[in-house]
Amino acid sequence: MRFTALSAPSAARAAWVTLAAVVVALLLCALIFVFYGVSPGTVYGTMLRGTLGDSTGLAEVARRTIPLLLIGSGLALAFRAQFFNIGAEGQVLLGAVFAAGTALFLPLPGVLLLPAMFIMGAVGGGLWAGIAAWLRRLNVNEILSTLMLNYIAVAVVTYLIAGPWKGKEVRGYIYTDLFPENGFLDVIPGTQVHWPTLVLGVAGALTLQWVLSRSTFGYALRVVGENPGAARYAGLSAGRVATTVALITGGMAGLAGAGEVAGIHHRLLEAGQISLGYGFTAVIVAWLARGNPALCLITAPVMAIILAGGDLLKIDLNMPFRVVDVFSGVILLCLISSEVFIRNRVTWGTARPAGSKANG
Amino acid sequence: MDNVFVEALVRALAVGTPLLLASLGAILNERGGVVNLGVEGMMAVGALAAFAVAVAPGGNLWLAVLAAAAAGALLASLHALATVTLRANQFVSGLALALLGTGAAGLLGKRYEGAPLFNKVPDWNLAGFVISPFTVFALLLAGALAFYLNSTRSGLTLRSVGENPAAADVLGVNVGRVRTLAVLAGGALAGVAGAFLALSYRASWADNMTAGLGWIAVALVIFVGWRPLRAILGALFFGVLYYLQFRLQGNSPIPTEVFSAMPFVLVLVVLALAGLRGQQGDAPAGLGRAYVRGER
C-alpha cells in the first residue's frame, strides 16, 4: 500500500471517508454480534426501530443528545489544540457534584438557584480538567491523568452519597435528598428532555465554533495544535492554550453534569446513573465532527442513537450495556485509522517511486 | 510478626503479577516506539479467552494461557494495523482498543459470569512461599527481557527503532515489521496477565475484573523508566499498596472510597514525580510518533 500526500484534501473527501469508516465499523460490530449469538439484523433493527421509529424513541435520543452535544463540542476544541482530554466522564460527575451541592446547601432565592447550579457545575468540571492541565506542565500525559481522575471522581460521588450527603429520608438507598423544586429544570412534557440545557448546548457549540474560527484565541489554538514548532517560534504559549482549553472543555462537561441532575434526577446519585458513559461517547462525537464544534450538532444525535439503542438492546434482547463500549471502540478505531485516507491518495502495489512516501 | 511480613509480601507479589506481566509487555512495545494504552482491553480479552478455554470440555490450562496470549495479540494486531500501517494516533488507538477490549469481553463473557473454575492453576510451594507459577514466570521474564534489550542484537535493533526509526531504516531495518512484532508481543503479554486473573488469582470470570490494573500497568512503565528489572520493584510497590488497601478496609475510620481511589491517586502522584525528576527524558525518542519514510 502506498500513500501520496494530497496538498489540499477536500471537505467532500473527508465526508465520504468518514462515512465509509462508520460503515466498516458497523460491519465489524456485526461480526462481534454473530460471535455473541444474535443476528446483526436483529440488533440494528431493534436499535433503529426503538430510537427513530416513534416519538418516545426520539425523545430518548434527544435526552442523550444534550450531554453529548455539550461535552463533544468542548472536546472538539480540545482535540484541535492536541489536548487529549479523555476525562470528560469525571468532569461531568464533578459538575453534577457542584450543582447538587449548590442546590442542597446554598440558601439562594428561587430564581437564582438554577443559574447558580449551572455556573457551579461548570466550575466543578473546569477544576477537574484543570488538575490535568496543571499536571501536563509536569510532563504528565493528559490521557493518563484525565483517565485516573475519572476513577477518582467516581469515588468522590460514591463517598458523598453514601456518607456526608446521604439523604435523610432515603433509608437504605445511597443518594441525596431531592433538590428544592426551584432546582428542577423544565422538561418537554411527557419526556425527560430538559430543553433549557439543549438550548445551552446548541448555543455552546455555535459559540465555540465562532471562537475557533474567528477569535484570536482560536487562531492561537489552531496554530498550537497544527504546528507546535511554528507556535513556539511565534511566541504562543502551548501551556497556556492547553490550560484554557482544559478549563473550557471541563466547564462544558460540568454544565452537562449539572443539566443531568437538575433536569432528570433532581438529586445526586450513583455515578453510573448520572452518566451512561457520556464522557467516552463524546470523544467520538468530537472526532466524527473532525474537530468542528458546530458539526457536533449532527454527530451528537448520531451517537445518541447508539446510546439509546444500547439501552434497548439491554431491555429487548437482554444484552449487556457493555455493547455500547464495543460500538464506541470500533467506531473510534475506524475513524482514526481512516484519517490517512483523507490526507493521502492510496495506490496498491509495492513499487516505491523516488520522492513518494512509501510505507513498508 | 514474621508471618505478617511474609503474608504481605506474598499478597503484594500476587497483585503485582498482572501489573508486572502487562507492564513488561508495554515496555517491549514502547521500547520499539509504539505507545499502547489498550493494555486494559487486552488484559480483559485475555482473561475471557483463558477462562473460556479452561472451562470448555477437555479444557487444558496450558491451552488456556496460550489462548489468552493469542487473544491479547489479536487485539494488539488491530493496534499495529492502525498505528504502524495506517499511522493513526497511537494514544487514541490505544484508548479505542481499551474500550473495545473491555466491551467485547463483557459482552461475550456474559455467559461465563459466576461459573466456577474447577481446574485452577495450582500454586507452587517454594520453601514455604505459596506462589503462583505466573509470578515465577513474570519474575524470570523481567530478567530475560532486560538481557534481551541490553545484550542481544535483536534487542538493540528494537531499541534503535524506538529511538531513531529513520536511522534504523537507513541501516536496512524494516521499521514497520519490528514495530508490529513488538506490539503483538506486548499484547500477548497483556493477555497472559489477564489469564493470571482468570485462572489463578480470581479463578472465575466477572465483567470488569481487570478493574483498572491495565491502566496502572501503563503508568508503571513511565514510573520505572522503561526498564524491565525496575518494573519488578514498581509492581511490588503497587502490590503493597493494594495489600494495605485490603488490610485497612473496614478496620479504620477512613472511608472505603478513599481506598478505592488510592491506586489512581497514587498513579497521578507517581507520574507527577516521574515528570518532576525528568524521567520522561528516559522515554524512547521516537515514542508515540508514526514513522513515515522521508519525513523528519
TrEMBL record, chain A:
<feature type="transmembrane region" description="Helical">
    <location>
        <begin position="295"/>
        <end position="313"/>
    </location>
</feature>
<dbReference type="InterPro" id="IPR001851">
    <property type="entry name" value="ABC_transp_permease"/>
</dbReference>
<feature type="transmembrane region" description="Helical">
    <location>
        <begin position="268"/>
        <end position="288"/>
    </location>
</feature>
<feature type="transmembrane region" description="Helical">
    <location>
        <begin position="233"/>
        <end position="256"/>
    </location>
</feature>
<keyword id="KW-1003">Cell membrane</keyword>
<dbReference type="GO" id="GO:0022857">
    <property type="term" value="F:transmembrane transporter activity"/>
</dbReference>
<dbReference type="Pfam" id="PF02653">
    <property type="entry name" value="BPD_transp_2"/>
</dbReference>
<feature type="transmembrane region" description="Helical">
    <location>
        <begin position="86"/>
        <end position="106"/>
    </location>
</feature>
<feature type="transmembrane region" description="Helical">
    <location>
        <begin position="319"/>
        <end position="342"/>
    </location>
</feature>
<keyword id="KW-0472">Membrane</keyword>
<feature type="transmembrane region" description="Helical">
    <location>
        <begin position="147"/>
        <end position="165"/>
    </location>
</feature>
<feature type="transmembrane region" description="Helical">
    <location>
        <begin position="12"/>
        <end position="38"/>
    </location>
</feature>
<protein>
    <submittedName>
        <fullName>Sugar ABC transporter permease</fullName>
    </submittedName>
</protein>
<feature type="transmembrane region" description="Helical">
    <location>
        <begin position="193"/>
        <end position="212"/>
    </location>
</feature>
<feature type="transmembrane region" description="Helical">
    <location>
        <begin position="112"/>
        <end position="135"/>
    </location>
</feature>
<keyword id="KW-1133">Transmembrane helix</keyword>
<dbReference type="GO" id="GO:0005886">
    <property type="term" value="C:plasma membrane"/>
</dbReference>
<keyword id="KW-0812">Transmembrane</keyword>
Automatic annotation (TrEMBL), chain B:
<feature type="transmembrane region" description="Helical">
    <location>
        <begin position="61"/>
        <end position="84"/>
    </location>
</feature>
<keyword id="KW-0472">Membrane</keyword>
<feature type="transmembrane region" description="Helical">
    <location>
        <begin position="258"/>
        <end position="276"/>
    </location>
</feature>
<feature type="transmembrane region" description="Helical">
    <location>
        <begin position="129"/>
        <end position="149"/>
    </location>
</feature>
<keyword id="KW-1133">Transmembrane helix</keyword>
<keyword id="KW-1003">Cell membrane</keyword>
<feature type="transmembrane region" description="Helical">
    <location>
        <begin position="229"/>
        <end position="246"/>
    </location>
</feature>
<dbReference type="GO" id="GO:0022857">
    <property type="term" value="F:transmembrane transporter activity"/>
</dbReference>
<dbReference type="GO" id="GO:0005886">
    <property type="term" value="C:plasma membrane"/>
</dbReference>
<protein>
    <submittedName>
        <fullName>ABC transporter permease</fullName>
    </submittedName>
</protein>
<feature type="transmembrane region" description="Helical">
    <location>
        <begin position="91"/>
        <end position="109"/>
    </location>
</feature>
<feature type="transmembrane region" description="Helical">
    <location>
        <begin position="6"/>
        <end position="27"/>
    </location>
</feature>
<dbReference type="Pfam" id="PF02653">
    <property type="entry name" value="BPD_transp_2"/>
</dbReference>
<dbReference type="InterPro" id="IPR001851">
    <property type="entry name" value="ABC_transp_permease"/>
</dbReference>
<feature type="transmembrane region" description="Helical">
    <location>
        <begin position="205"/>
        <end position="224"/>
    </location>
</feature>
<keyword id="KW-0812">Transmembrane</keyword>
<feature type="transmembrane region" description="Helical">
    <location>
        <begin position="181"/>
        <end position="199"/>
    </location>
</feature>
<feature type="transmembrane region" description="Helical">
    <location>
        <begin position="34"/>
        <end position="55"/>
    </location>
</feature>
